[in-house]
Design brief:
The structure is a single chain. This protein has a single domain, classed as Nucleotidyltransferase, domain 5 (2-Layer Sandwich). It contains four helices and four strands. Strands 3-2-1-4 form a four-stranded mixed β-sheet.
C-alpha cells in the first residue's frame, strides 16, 4: 500500500514523462500547508528559468497567509511576469501530482490571465 505522498509522486512522474516528450518549458507547482511554490524549468529540465513563492520576502509583506487561494493567484501572476521576462510565453503545466483544484487551480488561472499559454 502506497502512502499519500508516494501516490502523488507516482502521478507526477507519469505527467513529467508526457511533458518531456513535448519538448516545451514546464511550469511546476509545489504546495505545502504554509506556502506555494512555482518554477518555470527549461525544455531539457536542466535550468530553472524563473521562480516565485509565498516564502519570498516581498510576497510575505503582501499576504498574511501563504497557504490560501488568494496567495496562489498572486504567485501565478508573478511567475507569468517572470517567465515572460525570461523569454518564455508557452509552457506545459506540471501540477506535481496535486489535484487541479483550489490553490493549484487559482495559480494556473492567474498565470493564464497574466499571459502565459498552456
Amino acid at each position: 500500500m502506497l502512502t499519500k505522498k508516494a501516490q502523488r509522486l507516482r502521478r507526477s512522474r507519469q505527467t513529467r514523462v508526457r511533458i518531456a516528450k513535448q519538448m516545451v518549458a514546464r511550469l511546476t507547482v509545489f504546495r505545502s500547508n504554509m506556502h506555494i511554490y512555482a518554477s518555470v524549468i527549461s525544455e531539457d529540465g536542466a535550468k530553472v528559468l524563473a521562480s516565485a513563492s509565498t516564502a519570498e520576502k516581498e510576497i510575505r509583506a503582501q499576504v498574511t497567509n501563504g497557504g490560501n487561494a488568494a496567495a496562489a493567484a498572486l504567485i501565478g501572476k508573478r511567475i507569468a511576469e517572470k517567465a515572460k521576462a525570461a523569454g518564455v510565453d508557452k509552457v506545459a503545466f506540471d501540477r506535481g501530482g496535486f489535484a487541479f483544484h483550489g490553490r493549484v487551480k487559482a495559480l494556473a488561472e492567474a498565470a493564464r490571465e497574466a499571459g502565459l499559454q498552456f
